[in-house]
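writing this on my phone so excuse typos. first protein, seq and then structure
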Amino acid sequence: MLALVVSPLAAQRLPMRAGPGAQRNRQELEQRIRARFAQMIKQRLGLDDETASALDSTVQAFRPEREQLARDQEALRKRVQAFNIEGNGSDPEAQQLLDRMSELRQRENQLYQSEQDSLRKVLSPSQLLRFNLMRDQLAQRIQQLRMGGMMGGGRGLRGRGGGDGGGGIPQALGGGLPGLDPPLWGWSGMP
Protein backbone atom coordinates (compact mmCIF):
# COMPACT_ATOMS: atom_id res chain seq x y z
CA MET A 1 0.00 0.00 0.00
CA LEU A 2 1.33 3.42 -0.87
CA ALA A 3 1.81 5.62 2.16
CA LEU A 4 2.28 8.76 0.18
CA VAL A 5 0.52 11.55 1.89
CA VAL A 6 -0.32 11.26 5.52
CA SER A 7 2.36 11.35 8.15
CA PRO A 8 1.95 10.39 11.79
CA LEU A 9 2.85 13.97 12.67
CA ALA A 10 -0.09 15.24 10.62
CA ALA A 11 -2.34 12.60 12.13
CA GLN A 12 -1.33 13.67 15.63
CA ARG A 13 -2.73 17.11 14.88
CA LEU A 14 -6.17 15.74 14.06
CA PRO A 15 -8.71 17.61 16.13
CA MET A 16 -10.45 14.70 17.78
CA ARG A 17 -12.03 14.45 21.16
CA ALA A 18 -9.73 13.32 23.89
CA GLY A 19 -10.13 9.80 25.09
CA PRO A 20 -8.66 6.35 24.83
CA GLY A 21 -9.93 5.78 21.29
CA ALA A 22 -8.69 9.05 19.81
CA GLN A 23 -5.26 7.72 18.80
CA ARG A 24 -6.82 4.60 17.30
CA ASN A 25 -9.31 6.77 15.35
CA ARG A 26 -6.48 8.88 13.97
CA GLN A 27 -4.56 5.79 12.92
CA GLU A 28 -7.62 4.26 11.26
CA LEU A 29 -8.36 7.47 9.38
CA GLU A 30 -4.74 7.72 8.29
CA GLN A 31 -4.83 4.13 7.00
CA ARG A 32 -8.06 4.73 5.08
CA ILE A 33 -6.68 7.87 3.48
CA ARG A 34 -3.45 6.14 2.55
CA ALA A 35 -5.29 3.18 1.04
CA ARG A 36 -7.60 5.39 -1.02
CA PHE A 37 -4.77 7.62 -2.18
CA ALA A 38 -2.71 4.56 -3.11
CA GLN A 39 -5.58 3.26 -5.21
CA MET A 40 -5.94 6.61 -6.94
CA ILE A 41 -2.21 6.86 -7.66
CA LYS A 42 -2.02 3.34 -9.03
CA GLN A 43 -5.08 3.83 -11.21
CA ARG A 44 -4.43 7.35 -12.49
CA LEU A 45 -0.76 6.74 -13.19
CA GLY A 46 -1.40 3.31 -14.66
CA LEU A 47 1.09 1.59 -12.36
CA ASP A 48 1.56 -2.16 -12.19
CA ASP A 49 2.05 -3.82 -8.80
CA GLU A 50 5.84 -3.82 -9.09
CA THR A 51 6.05 -0.11 -9.91
CA ALA A 52 3.53 0.76 -7.19
CA SER A 53 5.63 -1.17 -4.69
CA ALA A 54 8.81 0.58 -5.85
CA LEU A 55 7.05 3.94 -5.53
CA ASP A 56 5.93 3.09 -2.01
CA SER A 57 9.45 2.03 -1.02
CA THR A 58 10.92 5.21 -2.45
CA VAL A 59 8.44 7.45 -0.67
CA GLN A 60 8.87 5.55 2.60
CA ALA A 61 12.65 5.98 2.42
CA PHE A 62 12.15 9.75 2.73
CA ARG A 63 9.39 9.63 5.33
CA PRO A 64 11.55 9.84 8.49
CA GLU A 65 13.42 12.86 7.19
CA ARG A 66 10.18 14.56 6.06
CA GLU A 67 8.64 13.94 9.47
CA GLN A 68 11.68 15.32 11.29
CA LEU A 69 11.66 18.38 9.07
CA ALA A 70 7.95 18.86 9.78
CA ARG A 71 8.61 18.67 13.54
CA ASP A 72 11.46 21.17 13.23
CA GLN A 73 9.30 23.53 11.18
CA GLU A 74 6.48 23.30 13.71
CA ALA A 75 8.88 24.01 16.58
CA LEU A 76 10.24 27.04 14.74
CA ARG A 77 6.72 28.27 13.96
CA LYS A 78 5.92 28.14 17.69
CA ARG A 79 9.11 30.01 18.57
CA VAL A 80 8.33 32.73 16.01
CA GLN A 81 4.78 33.05 17.32
CA ALA A 82 6.05 33.34 20.89
CA PHE A 83 8.56 35.97 19.79
CA ASN A 84 5.75 37.98 18.16
CA ILE A 85 3.29 37.57 21.03
CA GLU A 86 5.77 38.53 23.72
CA GLY A 87 6.83 41.55 21.68
CA ASN A 88 10.01 42.09 23.66
CA GLY A 89 12.40 39.86 21.74
CA SER A 90 15.88 41.07 20.99
CA ASP A 91 17.52 41.50 17.59
CA PRO A 92 19.99 38.67 18.30
CA GLU A 93 17.07 36.37 19.09
CA ALA A 94 15.28 37.48 15.92
CA GLN A 95 18.45 36.83 13.92
CA GLN A 96 18.64 33.30 15.35
CA LEU A 97 15.08 32.68 14.24
CA LEU A 98 15.80 34.04 10.77
CA ASP A 99 18.90 31.87 10.48
CA ARG A 100 16.90 28.82 11.53
CA MET A 101 14.23 29.67 8.94
CA SER A 102 16.88 29.77 6.22
CA GLU A 103 18.42 26.51 7.42
CA LEU A 104 15.07 24.72 7.37
CA ARG A 105 14.23 26.11 3.93
CA GLN A 106 17.54 24.78 2.61
CA ARG A 107 16.89 21.37 4.18
CA GLU A 108 13.42 21.37 2.66
CA ASN A 109 14.79 22.16 -0.79
CA GLN A 110 17.49 19.51 -0.50
CA LEU A 111 14.98 16.92 0.65
CA TYR A 112 12.64 17.81 -2.20
CA GLN A 113 15.43 17.48 -4.75
CA SER A 114 16.64 14.18 -3.34
CA GLU A 115 13.14 12.74 -3.30
CA GLN A 116 12.42 13.91 -6.83
CA ASP A 117 15.69 12.40 -8.07
CA SER A 118 14.75 9.07 -6.50
CA LEU A 119 11.19 9.20 -7.80
CA ARG A 120 12.51 9.81 -11.34
CA LYS A 121 14.06 6.35 -11.13
CA VAL A 122 10.60 4.84 -10.57
CA LEU A 123 8.22 7.05 -12.53
CA SER A 124 8.36 8.57 -15.98
CA PRO A 125 8.51 12.38 -16.08
CA SER A 126 4.82 12.64 -16.93
CA GLN A 127 3.88 10.21 -14.13
CA LEU A 128 6.02 12.11 -11.65
CA LEU A 129 4.44 15.39 -12.65
CA ARG A 130 0.94 13.94 -12.20
CA PHE A 131 1.97 12.31 -8.92
CA ASN A 132 3.21 15.63 -7.54
CA LEU A 133 0.07 17.37 -8.75
CA MET A 134 -2.15 14.82 -7.00
CA ARG A 135 -0.24 15.24 -3.74
CA ASP A 136 -0.48 19.01 -3.99
CA GLN A 137 -4.21 18.89 -4.75
CA LEU A 138 -4.84 16.64 -1.78
CA ALA A 139 -2.84 18.93 0.49
CA GLN A 140 -4.77 21.97 -0.76
CA ARG A 141 -8.11 20.24 -0.28
CA ILE A 142 -7.24 19.26 3.26
CA GLN A 143 -6.10 22.81 3.99
CA GLN A 144 -9.36 24.21 2.60
CA LEU A 145 -11.34 21.83 4.78
CA ARG A 146 -9.35 22.81 7.85
CA MET A 147 -9.73 26.52 7.15
CA GLY A 148 -13.47 26.09 6.60
CA GLY A 149 -13.73 24.70 10.12
CA MET A 150 -11.65 27.48 11.62
CA MET A 151 -13.61 30.20 9.85
CA GLY A 152 -16.98 28.71 10.76
CA GLY A 153 -17.87 27.84 7.19
CA GLY A 154 -18.32 24.55 5.43
CA ARG A 155 -18.26 21.28 7.30
CA GLY A 156 -14.96 22.19 8.88
CA LEU A 157 -12.86 19.78 10.84
CA ARG A 158 -15.61 17.79 12.47
CA GLY A 159 -17.38 16.78 9.29
CA ARG A 160 -21.09 16.05 9.11
CA GLY A 161 -23.05 16.08 12.29
CA GLY A 162 -20.18 17.29 14.48
CA GLY A 163 -18.69 13.85 14.95
CA ASP A 164 -15.16 13.17 16.02
CA GLY A 165 -13.67 13.48 12.53
CA GLY A 166 -12.67 9.83 12.40
CA GLY A 167 -15.47 8.49 10.27
CA GLY A 168 -14.62 9.45 6.74
CA ILE A 169 -12.20 10.24 4.01
CA PRO A 170 -11.59 13.76 2.66
CA GLN A 171 -13.61 14.83 -0.36
CA ALA A 172 -10.44 14.84 -2.47
CA LEU A 173 -10.22 11.10 -1.88
CA GLY A 174 -13.82 10.34 -2.66
CA GLY A 175 -15.13 10.71 0.88
CA GLY A 176 -16.95 13.47 2.64
CA LEU A 177 -15.05 14.26 5.82
CA PRO A 178 -11.89 16.24 6.34
CA GLY A 179 -9.25 15.32 8.77
CA LEU A 180 -5.54 15.81 8.20
CA ASP A 181 -3.08 18.63 8.02
CA PRO A 182 -1.44 19.11 4.66
CA PRO A 183 2.27 18.79 4.42
CA LEU A 184 4.21 21.79 5.58
CA TRP A 185 5.49 22.24 2.05
CA GLY A 186 3.38 21.98 -1.08
CA TRP A 187 5.25 19.19 -2.81
CA SER A 188 4.95 16.45 -0.31
CA GLY A 189 1.93 15.26 0.68
CA MET A 190 1.82 14.00 3.62
CA PRO A 191 3.17 13.14 5.12
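second protein below, same order as before
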Amino acid sequence: MIKLIVVFRRVWIRCIGQLAFAFIKLVNPGLKTAGSIKCKNIPQILILDGASITLANQVVLNSANFGYHLSMYKPVKLFAEGAAAKITIGANTRVNGSCIHARQLVSIGENVLIGANSAIFDSNGHPLVMDSPHTRLTNTDEPRAVHIGDNVWLGAGVTVLPGTTIGSGSVIASGSVVRGNVPANCIFGGNPAQLIKQY
Protein backbone atom coordinates (compact mmCIF):
# COMPACT_ATOMS: atom_id res chain seq x y z
CA MET A 1 0.00 0.00 0.00
CA ILE A 2 2.81 2.41 0.90
CA LYS A 3 4.51 1.66 -2.41
CA LEU A 4 1.29 2.50 -4.25
CA ILE A 5 0.99 5.82 -2.38
CA VAL A 6 4.60 6.70 -3.24
CA VAL A 7 4.04 5.93 -6.93
CA PHE A 8 0.78 7.91 -6.98
CA ARG A 9 2.44 10.92 -5.33
CA ARG A 10 5.34 10.91 -7.79
CA VAL A 11 2.96 10.72 -10.75
CA TRP A 12 0.83 13.53 -9.25
CA ILE A 13 3.89 15.77 -8.75
CA ARG A 14 4.96 15.22 -12.37
CA CYS A 15 1.46 15.86 -13.73
CA ILE A 16 1.12 19.11 -11.75
CA GLY A 17 4.59 20.19 -12.90
CA GLN A 18 3.95 19.44 -16.57
CA LEU A 19 0.59 21.25 -16.53
CA ALA A 20 2.10 24.27 -14.81
CA PHE A 21 5.01 24.34 -17.27
CA ALA A 22 2.64 24.17 -20.26
CA PHE A 23 0.75 27.19 -18.89
CA ILE A 24 3.98 29.10 -18.12
CA LYS A 25 5.20 28.46 -21.68
CA LEU A 26 1.87 29.63 -23.10
CA VAL A 27 2.02 33.01 -21.33
CA ASN A 28 5.80 33.58 -21.78
CA PRO A 29 6.78 33.99 -25.45
CA GLY A 30 10.40 34.41 -24.32
CA LEU A 31 10.49 30.80 -23.07
CA LYS A 32 11.95 28.54 -25.76
CA THR A 33 12.26 24.78 -25.48
CA ALA A 34 13.84 22.11 -27.65
CA GLY A 35 12.39 18.67 -27.09
CA SER A 36 10.96 17.36 -23.85
CA ILE A 37 11.26 19.23 -20.53
CA LYS A 38 10.68 17.35 -17.26
CA CYS A 39 9.03 19.47 -14.63
CA LYS A 40 8.48 18.17 -11.09
CA ASN A 41 6.07 20.38 -9.18
CA ILE A 42 5.65 24.06 -10.04
CA PRO A 43 8.68 26.20 -10.94
CA GLN A 44 8.76 30.00 -10.85
CA ILE A 45 9.65 31.32 -14.31
CA LEU A 46 9.68 35.06 -14.90
CA ILE A 47 10.74 36.68 -18.19
CA LEU A 48 10.61 40.48 -18.36
CA ASP A 49 11.19 43.18 -20.97
CA GLY A 50 12.00 41.00 -23.98
CA ALA A 51 14.43 38.67 -22.19
CA SER A 52 14.64 34.98 -23.06
CA ILE A 53 15.09 31.57 -21.45
CA THR A 54 16.09 28.59 -23.60
CA LEU A 55 15.85 25.03 -22.29
CA ALA A 56 17.33 22.15 -24.31
CA ASN A 57 16.00 18.60 -24.56
CA GLN A 58 15.52 16.59 -21.34
CA VAL A 59 16.19 19.48 -18.95
CA VAL A 60 14.78 18.65 -15.51
CA LEU A 61 13.31 21.41 -13.33
CA ASN A 62 12.77 19.76 -9.95
CA SER A 63 10.79 21.77 -7.39
CA ALA A 64 9.54 18.72 -5.47
CA ASN A 65 10.96 17.81 -2.06
CA PHE A 66 9.24 14.44 -2.22
CA GLY A 67 11.70 11.83 -3.44
CA TYR A 68 14.70 14.19 -3.39
CA HIS A 69 17.47 13.33 -0.94
CA LEU A 70 17.80 16.87 0.51
CA SER A 71 15.33 19.47 1.72
CA MET A 72 14.62 22.18 -0.84
CA TYR A 73 13.78 25.54 0.66
CA LYS A 74 12.10 26.88 -2.48
CA PRO A 75 11.04 25.74 -5.98
CA VAL A 76 13.21 26.25 -9.06
CA LYS A 77 13.28 29.95 -9.96
CA LEU A 78 14.36 31.14 -13.42
CA PHE A 79 14.34 34.94 -13.75
CA ALA A 80 15.50 36.73 -16.93
CA GLU A 81 15.24 40.50 -16.58
CA GLY A 82 15.91 43.05 -19.34
CA ALA A 83 15.90 43.12 -23.14
CA ALA A 84 19.36 41.58 -23.50
CA ALA A 85 18.99 39.04 -20.68
CA LYS A 86 19.35 35.35 -21.54
CA ILE A 87 19.36 32.11 -19.60
CA THR A 88 20.37 29.04 -21.59
CA ILE A 89 20.35 25.54 -20.11
CA GLY A 90 21.82 22.61 -22.06
CA ALA A 91 20.43 19.14 -22.66
CA ASN A 92 20.03 16.67 -19.78
CA THR A 93 20.81 19.30 -17.14
CA ARG A 94 19.05 18.96 -13.79
CA VAL A 95 18.11 22.01 -11.74
CA ASN A 96 16.94 21.12 -8.23
CA GLY A 97 15.23 23.81 -6.15
CA SER A 98 17.66 26.57 -7.14
CA CYS A 99 17.56 30.17 -8.39
CA ILE A 100 19.06 31.35 -11.69
CA HIS A 101 18.82 35.10 -12.35
CA ALA A 102 20.15 36.85 -15.47
CA ARG A 103 20.28 40.51 -16.40
CA GLN A 104 22.81 39.76 -19.16
CA LEU A 105 23.69 36.06 -19.59
CA VAL A 106 23.75 32.86 -17.57
CA SER A 107 24.83 30.00 -19.82
CA ILE A 108 24.73 26.44 -18.46
CA GLY A 109 26.04 23.50 -20.49
CA GLU A 110 24.83 19.94 -20.99
CA ASN A 111 24.59 17.22 -18.33
CA VAL A 112 25.02 19.69 -15.47
CA LEU A 113 23.84 18.80 -11.96
CA ILE A 114 22.68 21.73 -9.82
CA GLY A 115 22.04 20.74 -6.20
CA ALA A 116 19.19 22.14 -4.13
CA ASN A 117 19.29 25.66 -2.71
CA SER A 118 21.96 26.94 -5.08
CA ALA A 119 22.00 30.44 -6.59
CA ILE A 120 23.50 31.50 -9.92
CA PHE A 121 23.31 35.17 -10.88
CA ASP A 122 25.10 37.61 -13.17
CA SER A 123 24.35 40.75 -11.15
CA ASN A 124 24.46 41.66 -7.48
CA GLY A 125 21.42 43.86 -7.88
CA HIS A 126 23.03 46.95 -6.34
CA PRO A 127 26.45 48.59 -6.75
CA LEU A 128 28.98 48.63 -3.92
CA VAL A 129 29.46 52.46 -3.98
CA MET A 130 31.31 52.73 -0.68
CA ASP A 131 31.73 56.50 -1.17
CA SER A 132 27.95 57.04 -1.36
CA PRO A 133 26.16 54.01 0.13
CA HIS A 134 22.85 55.88 0.29
CA THR A 135 22.61 55.47 -3.53
CA ARG A 136 22.54 51.65 -3.38
CA LEU A 137 18.76 51.59 -3.07
CA THR A 138 18.19 53.50 -6.29
CA ASN A 139 20.93 52.09 -8.54
CA THR A 140 21.79 48.75 -10.11
CA ASP A 141 25.22 47.34 -10.85
CA GLU A 142 26.52 46.22 -14.24
CA PRO A 143 25.86 42.52 -14.93
CA ARG A 144 28.74 40.19 -15.85
CA ALA A 145 28.03 36.98 -17.73
CA VAL A 146 28.22 33.57 -16.04
CA HIS A 147 29.32 30.49 -18.03
CA ILE A 148 29.07 26.92 -16.70
CA GLY A 149 30.52 24.21 -18.93
CA ASP A 150 29.27 20.71 -19.70
CA ASN A 151 29.20 17.92 -17.08
CA VAL A 152 29.65 20.29 -14.13
CA TRP A 153 28.30 19.31 -10.71
CA LEU A 154 27.29 22.05 -8.27
CA GLY A 155 26.66 20.59 -4.81
CA ALA A 156 23.81 21.81 -2.62
CA GLY A 157 23.82 25.44 -1.52
CA VAL A 158 26.44 26.67 -4.00
CA THR A 159 26.50 30.38 -4.87
CA VAL A 160 27.92 31.34 -8.28
CA LEU A 161 28.74 35.06 -8.41
CA PRO A 162 28.69 37.42 -11.42
CA GLY A 163 31.50 37.06 -13.95
CA THR A 164 32.25 33.42 -13.06
CA THR A 165 33.29 30.76 -15.58
CA ILE A 166 33.31 27.09 -14.51
CA GLY A 167 35.14 24.72 -16.84
CA SER A 168 33.62 21.48 -18.10
CA GLY A 169 33.73 18.44 -15.83
CA SER A 170 34.42 20.36 -12.63
CA VAL A 171 32.78 19.78 -9.25
CA ILE A 172 31.92 22.58 -6.81
CA ALA A 173 31.62 21.42 -3.20
CA SER A 174 28.39 22.06 -1.27
CA GLY A 175 28.08 25.47 0.35
CA SER A 176 30.82 27.05 -1.77
CA VAL A 177 30.86 30.64 -3.00
CA VAL A 178 32.42 30.74 -6.47
CA ARG A 179 33.90 33.78 -8.19
CA GLY A 180 36.27 34.06 -11.14
CA ASN A 181 37.57 31.26 -13.33
CA VAL A 182 37.37 27.60 -12.36
CA PRO A 183 39.48 25.33 -14.62
CA ALA A 184 38.01 22.25 -16.28
CA ASN A 185 38.11 18.86 -14.53
CA CYS A 186 38.84 19.95 -11.00
CA ILE A 187 37.27 20.12 -7.54
CA PHE A 188 36.72 23.58 -6.07
CA GLY A 189 35.31 24.33 -2.63
CA GLY A 190 35.03 26.81 0.21
CA ASN A 191 34.17 30.46 0.76
CA PRO A 192 35.76 31.84 -1.30
CA ALA A 193 36.04 28.67 -3.39
CA GLN A 194 39.58 27.47 -4.04
CA LEU A 195 41.20 24.63 -5.93
CA ILE A 196 41.09 21.36 -3.95
CA LYS A 197 42.23 18.97 -6.68
CA GLN A 198 43.00 19.16 -10.39
CA TYR A 199 42.52 16.06 -12.54
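The chain has one helix and 21 strands. thats all i got for now
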